[in-house]
Amino acid sequence: MVGQAMNAREEILARVRAHRPSAPVTVPRDYLPDVAGIDVVEVLVDRLVDYKAGVHRASAASLAEVLGALVASSATVVVPPGLPPEWFTGPVVRDSADAPVSVGTLDAAGVTVVTGCAVAIAATGTLILDAAPDQGRRVLSLVPDHHVCVVWTDQIAGGVPAALARLADPSRPLTLISGPSATSDIELNRVEGVHGPRRLDVVIATR
Amino acid sequence: MNGTGNIVALKPFPDAARLELDDAQLRTNLRRATHTIRDKRLRVVGEVDDWEQLRLSGAAIKDDVLARLPELLERFEEAATKAGAVVHWARDSAEACEIVTALVKETAAREVVKVKSMATQEIGLNEALEAAGIAATETDLAELIVQLAEDTPSHILVPAIHYNRSQIREIFLSKMPGVTRGLTDEPRALAEAARKHLRAKFLTATVGISGANFAIADTGTLVVVESEGNGRMCLTLPQTLISVVGIEKILPDFSSLDVFLQLLPRSSTGERMNPYTSMWTGVTPGDGPQTTHIVLIDNGRTATLSDEVGRQALRCIRCSACLNVCPVYERVGGHAYGSVYPGPIGAILSPQMTGDGANKTLPYASTLCGACFDACPVRINIPEVLVHLRQKGPKSRAEHAAFASISWIMRDRRRYAAALRAARRGSAPLRGRGPLRRLPWPASAWTVSRDLPLPPKESFREWWAKR
Ligand code: SF4
What we know:
The structure holds 2 protein chains of 2 kinds.
Chain A: H1 8-19, H2 40-50, E1 54-59, H3 63-70, E2 76-79, E3 93-94, H4 103-107, E4 111-115, E5 119-121, E6 126-129, E7 146-152, E8 156-157, H5 160-166, E9 174-177, E10 182-183, E11 191-192, E12 199-206
Parallel strand pairs in A: 1-12, 2-3, 2-4, 4-7, 5-8, 7-12
Antiparallel strand pairs in A: 5-6, 6-9, 10-11
Chain B: H1 13-21, H2 24-46, H3 51-67, H4 69-82, E1 85-90, H5 93-107, E2 111-114, H6 118-122, H7 125-131, E3 135-138, H8 141-148, H9 165-175, H10 187-204, E4 207-210, E5 214-216, E6 221-226, H11 230-236, E7 240-246, E8 250-251, H12 257-268, E9 276-281, E10 291-297, H13 301-305, H14 321-324, H15 327-332, H16 343-354, H17 371-375, H18 382-392, H19 396-409, H20 413-427, H21 443-449, H22 460-466
Parallel strand pairs in B: 1-10, 2-3, 2-4, 4-7, 5-8, 7-10
Antiparallel strand pairs in B: 5-6, 6-9
Helix pairs in contact in B: 1-19, 3-12, 16-18
Iron/sulfur cluster (SF4) binds next to α14 of chain B.
C-alpha cells in the first residue's frame, strides 16, 4: 500500500543499509589453529580434575567393568538409544523415540545417565555432545543428578578451533560441558552442582 | 530511531553516583568482587599464547559483520526459518515486548522461565509480562537474588555483585517460599535453596525465554553461554522457546565461534571455559522445544551504527571485563549508570543507543585511564569513544557536573593514583607498560579536546586546585 509505514523488518534493514560502514573488512586469522605440542589426554585430565569432575581410565576391554563400578550405587541407569549394549551387563533404561524416558523418571533420586560424546577439548577441559545416537536427547545429560561420559582418546582435540572443526553437523543441538554445573554468584565463591548434574564422571577410554 | 527501555537513565550520572558512594557496604562488596575476577582473568588470559591474535580476529570479525549486516541478517533469518524457527523483528523495546507478550499469550501460559539475558533486561520484558498478568521467573542465581530483592542488576555478569552472603540469606528468608531460619549463609546452602526453589518451575514450565550470545548467519543457530545449567533447563524443557536477540549478535559462520569461545569465558568469568554452552538451530524433532521464536531487536543499535567512531561499541560481547578493571565502576557500582549496561561499556553504549536525556552525562563517568581498552577482548577503544562523545555532546553543564563528581569520587589523590595503577596492572598482562599515555581524566579532557598543554611539572593536584 502506498504511503503505509514500513514494517519493522524493512525499516531495520533499511536503517542498517544506510548506516553500515562502507569499507570491506579483511579478517586476520593469525591465531593458532590448534594447541600444539601437548599430551591431550594429560591436559584434559588436568582440566577435568580442576573442574572437580571425576576422572577414570579404561580400555575397550575394561570399559564395562569401569562403568559398572561407577553406577554401582545408582538406583537407575538411563542410556541413550545408541549406546553400545556391550558397555553394560546390568539392567538399564534405554531412551528411544517411541518410548522416551519421562522427565519425572530422570529427576528421581539416584539416576545416573551414561553417554558418549562427539569431541573433547583438552585445553579447556570440555566435552561436546551433539545428540548423536550414543548421546541422545539433551534432557538426558541435564536432569539426572549424575552424568557419566565416555571419551575415547582419539576424540580429544587440543584446542577449541580444532575441536569445532571436527563436529559433523553444527546444526544439531550441541552442548559443551566443562565440569559440573557451577555458580559463582555468591561473593564469587564457586559452588558446584546447581541445576545440571551435581556429579560428572568422565571415563577416558583407549580403543 | 532511538533505543528505549532500561537503558535510559533517570538521573544524571553525578547525582546517581553520589547516592551510591554513601554506601560503604556496596563499595566493600564491589572491591572484593571486581578484584577477584580480574585476578582470575589475568591468570587464564596469560596462559593463551595467541591472545593478542585472537583479540585482533575477534574485533575484525565483528567489524566485518557490521559491514555486511543487512545480508547476514537476511541469511540468518532464512536459515533459522528453514530450520523451523519463526523470526520476528522489533524496532524498539515496546515493540519487542509486545511481540513476546503476544507469543506467550498464544500458549496460554501464565508463567515463564527466563535465562539471564541482557537484551530482555534492556527492553524491560519482565515488567511488560507482569503488566499482562504473566509471571517471569529469573533462573540465574544472581538474577533471582536481584528479582527477589526487587532490585536491579549492578553488573553484567554477576548482577548481585553488590550483595554479600548474609544479605543474600536475608533476601531468601524473606522472599523465597519454603525457606526456614535454619538456612545458613554458606554459599553452598544458599545455592541449594535456589536449586530447590527453581526445580519445580523448570519441570513444569511450558515457555522459556532467553537471549543469545551469538547468532550464526550461515546455519540460523543460536548460542547461549552459561554456568549453572539453568540456561540448559530453560532451553531444553519447555515446549516453546522465545529468544530475544540484538541485531549485532550475528556471526557469519560456525567457524567464527572458535575465536569467541576462546575470548568470552576467559574475559568474563576468568575460566578456561564456562561450564555449559548450548547451541540450537530451529527445532529438532523429539529434542527440546518444538516451537522456537527469535525476536531480532534494533532498539538504538542502528543509531549507534551511524556513528563512525562510536559504532565499535557494537562489537561488545558483554563479557564485563571492562567493568572489573574500571576504577570508577569499582567506587560507584552499576546502579549509578542508570542503565542495564553499566561501567565503561555502558558509558559509551547507553548514550548512543538512547540519544539523549540523563545519559548525556555518562561519557564523563570515566577517568580515561585506558584499562578498559586493554582488557576488552574485542579491542573496543572505549576512551576514544568517550572523548568523541564528549566532543559531540552539548558540553558545559554535563561537563561541569561530571568534573565535580569525578573529583569527588576520586577525591583522595593517593587512592586515585593507586586505583589507576591497579587498573592498568589488572588489564594488561601481556606486554610491558610505559608511563600513562595520557593524563588521567579530567586533565585529559583538556589535553585531548581543548589542546591546552599542561605544564609538565605541575601535579594533578596543583592543576586541580587552580581550576
Ligand atoms: S566493551 Fe569489551 S570488555 Fe566491556 S563488556 Fe564489552 S566486550 Fe567486554
